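Reviewer comment 2.1 asked that we show a complete input and output for one of the modelled complexes. We chose the iron/sulfur cluster case, as it is the one discussed in the main text.
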Amino acid sequence: MNPVNFTRNEHAAAVLAAYYETPPMAYVHSFGCQQNVNDGEKILGILMDLGCGQAQRLEDADIIVFNTCAVREHAEQRVFGNVGALKKLKEQNPRLMIAVCGCMPQQAHVVEKFKHSYPFVDIVFGTGAIDRLPEMICQRIEGHKRVMRQPEERTDIVEHMPIRRDSAFRAWLPIMYGCDNFCSYCIVPYVRGRERSRRSADILAEFRQLVADGYKDITLLGQNVNSYGKGLGEELDFADLLAMLAAVPGDYRIRFMTSHPKDATKKLIDTMASSDHIAKHLHLPVQSGSDTILQAMNRRYTAARYLELIDYAKQTIPEMTYSSDIIVGFPGETEEDFRRTEELVRRVEYMQLFTFIYSKRAGTPAARLPDPTPHAEKAARIARLVAIQDAVVEKLTAALVGTEVQVLVEGPGRTPGVFTGRLDNNMVVEVPGPAPVGQFAFARIESAKGAVLKGRLV
Ligand code: SAH
Ligand code: SF4
Ligand code: F3S
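Response of the prediction step:
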């Protein structure tokens, strides 16, 4: 299917200019994953294209957009809390326009809740309607009615949306949208719709532009990048796409996320090995070390197959680091199942581990499973994993003391005079300033404290 091209809505720009006396200031906040952050950058891009300025603080905004995440109950509660707090601002400024979008309003019950319990919210829309925002703003202003858009499934791809990136040197580059995996616990396939890939020529054009604009750290995004290209009618898989992008000359590195273990291949690892442009870091979420649980999760791989790929990667790229997501306390997870997860975490030696207590999501198959394990037991399991992980990280960072590494300087750290940078393998290093923000530099590592390396630029 051919993509749709975004076109500027002149009428909306005129309507906004007439409604606000001075150019309206927009504040966009994205919750959730990088895909959402990238959507938020497009939302801000669209608003600025309509003549808005960018507000640095919520309190200074005429238009507030909360771009939401539905992946866990806690994420949703946070959004409801944050939106609730906007009521006061609206009382002070009746022209304040409040929009809630993203993954939460892709659920009909959430739209209902905003409609009935949050009357000060002006516009509600889902992930597929971002390019319609100018139209919705017109409806709100000219129609004098709130715009509550029902969840809808987008099957096409919109190219050339304006974008206002958060960083001048780190960029997100979506290569595909949606997810077809239907892991039994996960809401994403329901809120993000079916998997669809961007044309490689469109990705390449955006990539080249990013490199030309000086972006140094470019992350390719997709819920399962390994299924890139399905249904596209191009003879190219994710590894091919990666190789094609890494052949673009320039001073940059490429990352990607997320790679689903069921489709990750040795070819992908070989491709990572073949180019210095590709960061030697692999985020390969395992979720559990127990085959029983993996099956109940509908992950479609075993712990043994997962470890086989990790072993291959370790042999092929000895300096590679790994990260993973783990769900603790999936319905029916026993102490025995959990021990398998502990074992796997010890064996792989991840650099980073993102651990989550299972959260029941309405409408997913796992929500119907009996879940007898008490929350306190799940919390205790998480604490055990974190302790294992802390020891692993200490070992991994200690091994780098005395070496010289390349870092991308990201900015001033929390301690005055100290700058932080990131290694190719995703480790964070602190160096005394001054340091060239947004540029690559070399550092000698002098010590390590937990996950953080300390060094000096050379
Ligand atoms: N597509 C990515 C994950 C996106 S969601 C992948 O498959 O790896 C990010 C992480 O949130 C998941 O890896 C999972 O660990 C966690 N997650 C998703 N649904 C969850 C749920 N219902 N409860 C707890 N954690 C969940
Ligand atoms: Fe969710 Fe699984 Fe899709 Fe990841 S691959 S977004 S965990 S359904
Ligand atoms: Fe959350 Fe939606 Fe991403 S549910 S994790 S923001 S795809």
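Residues 404-457 form a domain with the OB fold (Dihydrolipoamide Acetyltransferase, E2P) fold (CATH 2.40.50.140). We note this here for comparison with the apo prediction described in Section 3.2.
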